[in-house]
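Consider the tokenized backbone below.
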């Protein structure tokens, strides 16, 4: 399909894409102001845009619209529709250039759908979720261990700096047992026996169940850590956090040592020579030195960060523990004390709960201190002391309460020792397990990333190899090509594109001409489509939307031959605004095995009311020679001949390197093109000798085009059929001297042969003399 820019070629492609993929990439690109619903419809349309696409399977036609489900169609058609949603099949010129010009990470994302990495990505994501889960469980086990350590220290009246190993705990426990006449512990396994002996001693003293209740309540209160401990933990946390934040002032962003270390690891393992984030050139040794320097310079930040996180967990754990202990006490003892005292207890519990919730996330140092001050105002120590005093008075009313209390405390201490030691041992086992699991999962993630990388690289090698075969068919014997697509970063994925230019491998944008960039992008896309078709032979659709812009005449025919020869098993749709390229495509398609399969359309006009208007697909040259052209109205014949002359002059001034007066908008009309060409043609003696009469005739009659173009003014009405035929024939004759039907090339200036004008096959050749 051929048509000038702005005549609606891409609208057809947009419609096909929307039907088959449920998305129009030119309108649904994520830009907030663009949408299919708003801009896909006619500008004056009140409703949603409507499309119908006819798909033929054998002898049966099926109408597909955006409101129909693929499940309703027969197997072959359903497979086709499902595949169209997965595989890329449209290449727009913008997409072509974006892929070549993209940064490696963006280039990877551009073809990620084609790579079909869903299973790889899903597996890697699951592994990374397991890593995060493992790390979270490790931190949870570490927090539970710290809670049990602090609880055991409190219950055995050990200092916060004391170890809670078996030897230390047994020694502390024996001080209580010795005063009660209970055999001392030698190992933790003897705890059940000592508990039985204490139970035997305490049973005769159980005169009243209330004594057990009050004694147990006082034991629970003994587990509440004093406000001095809470304050100390909070202020230590606030101080270290303040130091860290102060140290970070002047550092742009946050300093993350693990990111630097992991990034260096990727660079060294993958031997990267370009940064995966900004695509700048890098040297792995220089990066290693920089990372080492950054970590060395920020040793203090790393240490402060680790210390802050540790003190943060301790502070939150103490707040949570006190809240839980007081809540447990309040639940078990709901009566028997003054209501006012219980009300004060409820206020303290609420205060601890609020602090614990607030500081689940790290707060500013000022906020931490302010909240500690608010807790002080609640006087939690005084409330706990008053509760203890009241309960002590109540317990003193029972006989033998002192010995009962000592035995009961020894019993609860032994139970706490047994319980917390088992939990600490269990936490240690969990920590060892999660640490080992984390290390093993890291290895699995690394192996999974490498497997994906190898798979993608193999596919990229296949695509690059195919692309080079195609590229060499378009550019034979030019000593350039050999594109390489290299996966340069593990994890997120990044593709580096290089090409070879006379033995040098580098970014093709710095080596190739604009035309070579165009064909390289086209060949890469075609190679992807071929690789895709090998995976899924049931889907064979290829759409090229105005992709060739800077490719010169020497390569156009070879590009057309490549497309029709290599993709003869595909349905091919090509749009272009270049009429010469359109003619070449028609010629090459006719020379294929079944020329009747191909249809050529030319957009004759575009109107707001009717949109694109498809005209006769014949070129101006063919039309002028046809019976229809000979019998047409003089004005129509002159218009066609004028367009053909304009195409000839544009190509000749380009191929013969003829200077044309500069126009800033680039909209060169016939007059300057003709004047520049005619002057140069007269200087080329061998050419002028053969074409003199033709050139003079064109020069004399070309004004007819301007007359006709001036809205059929009075001059145009007097135009005769003979005058229009003479002008048309002069243009046809000129074409025969400058365009070779055999090689489909315009004559070109051969600078190495003293400025000879010649087509590629040298059937048309004009020397200087």
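A designed sequence for it:
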């Amino acid at each position: 399909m051929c048509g000038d820019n702005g005549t609606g070629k891409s609208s057809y492609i947009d419609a096909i894409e929307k039907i088959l993929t449920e998305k129009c990439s030119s309108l649904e690109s994520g830009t907030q102001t663009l949408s299919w619903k708003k801009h896909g419809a006619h500008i004056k349309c009140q409703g949603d845009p409507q499309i119908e696409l006819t798909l033929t399977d054998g002898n049966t036609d099926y109408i597909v619209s955006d409101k129909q489900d693929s499940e309703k169609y027969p197997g072959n058609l359903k497979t086709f529709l499902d595949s169209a949603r997965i595989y890329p099949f449209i290449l727009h010129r913008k997409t072509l250039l974006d892929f070549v010009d993209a940064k490696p990470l963006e280039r990877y994302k551009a073809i990620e759908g084609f790579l079909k990495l869903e299973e790889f990505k899903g597996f890697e994501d699951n592994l990374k979720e397991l890593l995060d889960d493992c790390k979270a469980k490790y931190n949870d086990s570490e927090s539970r261990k710290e809670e049990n350590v602090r609880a055991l220290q409190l219950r055995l009246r050990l200092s916060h700096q004391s170890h809670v190993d078996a030897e230390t705990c047994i020694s502390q426990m024996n001080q209580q047992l010795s005063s009660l006449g209970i055999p001392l512990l030698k190992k933790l396994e003897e705890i059940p026996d000592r508990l039985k002996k204490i139970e035997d001693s305490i049973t005769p003293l159980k005169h009243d169940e209330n004594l057990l209740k009050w004694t147990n309540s006082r034991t629970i209160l003994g587990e509440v850590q004093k406000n001095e401990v809470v304050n100390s933990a909070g202020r230590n946390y606030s101080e270290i956090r303040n130091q860290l934040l102060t140290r970070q002032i002047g550092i742009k962003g946050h300093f993350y040592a693990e990111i630097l270390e992991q990034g260096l690891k990727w660079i060294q393992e993958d031997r990267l020579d370009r940064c995966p984030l900004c695509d700048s050139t890098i040297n792995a040794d220089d990066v290693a030195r920089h990372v080492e320097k950054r970590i060395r310079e920020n040793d203090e930040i790393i240490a402060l960060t680790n210390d802050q996180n540790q003190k943060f967990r301790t502070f939150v754990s103490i707040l949570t523990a006190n809240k839980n202990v007081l809540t447990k006490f309040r639940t078990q003892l709901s009566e028997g004390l003054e209501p006012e005292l219980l009300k004060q207890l409820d206020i303290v519990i609420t205060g601890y709960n609020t602090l614990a919730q607030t500081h689940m996330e790290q707060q500013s140092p000022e906020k931490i201190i302010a909240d500690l001050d608010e807790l002080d105002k609640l006087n939690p120590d005084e409330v706990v002391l008053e509760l203890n005093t009241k309960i002590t008075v109540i317990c003193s009313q029972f006989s033998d309460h002192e010995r009962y209390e000592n035995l009961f405390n020894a019993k609860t201490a032994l139970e706490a020792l047994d319980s917390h030691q088992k939990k600490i041992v269990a936490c240690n086992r969990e920590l060892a397990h999660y640490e080992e699991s984390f290390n093993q999962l890291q290895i699995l993630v690394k192996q999974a990333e490498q497997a994906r990388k190898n798979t993608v690289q193999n596919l990229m090698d296949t695509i690059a190899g195919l692309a080079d075969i195609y590229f060499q068919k378009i550019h034979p014997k030019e000593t350039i090509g050999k594109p390489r697509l290299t996966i340069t970063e593990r994890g997120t994925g990044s593709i580096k594109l290089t090409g070879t230019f006379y033995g040098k491998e580098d970014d093709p944008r710095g080596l190739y001409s604009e035309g070579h960039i165009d064909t390289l992008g086209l060949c890469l896309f075609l190679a992807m489509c071929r690789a895709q078709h090998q995976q899924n032979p049931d889907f064979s659709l290829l759409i090229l939307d105005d992709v060739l812009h800077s490719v010169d005449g020497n390569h156009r025919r070879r590009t057309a031959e490549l497309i029709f020869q290599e993709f003869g098993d595909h349905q091919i749709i090509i749009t272009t605004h270049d009429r010469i390229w359109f003619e070449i495509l028609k010629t090459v398609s006719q020379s294929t095995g079944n020329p009747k399969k191909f249809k050529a359309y030319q957009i004759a006009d575009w109107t707001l009311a009717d949109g694109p208007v498809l005209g006769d697909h014949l070129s101006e040259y063919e039309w002028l020679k046809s019976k229809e052209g000979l019998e047409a109205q003089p004005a129509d014949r002159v218009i066609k001949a004028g367009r053909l002359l304009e195409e000839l002059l544009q190509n000749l001034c380009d191929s013969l390197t003829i200077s044309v007066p500069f126009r800033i908008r680039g909209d060169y009309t016939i007059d300057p093109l003709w004047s520049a060409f005619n002057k140069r043609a007269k200087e080329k003696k061998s050419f002028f000798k053969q074409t003199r009469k033709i050139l003079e005739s064109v020069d004399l009659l070309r004004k007819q085009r301007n007359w006709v173009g001036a809205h059929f003014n009075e001059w145009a009405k007097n135009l005769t059929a003979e005058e229009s035929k003479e002008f048309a024939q002069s243009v046809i004759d000129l074409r025969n001297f400058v365009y070779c039907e055999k090689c489909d090339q315009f004559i070109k200036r051969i600078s190495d042969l003293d400025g000879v004008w010649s087509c590629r096959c040298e059937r048309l050749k004009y020397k200087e003399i």
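The first helix runs from residue 9 to 21.
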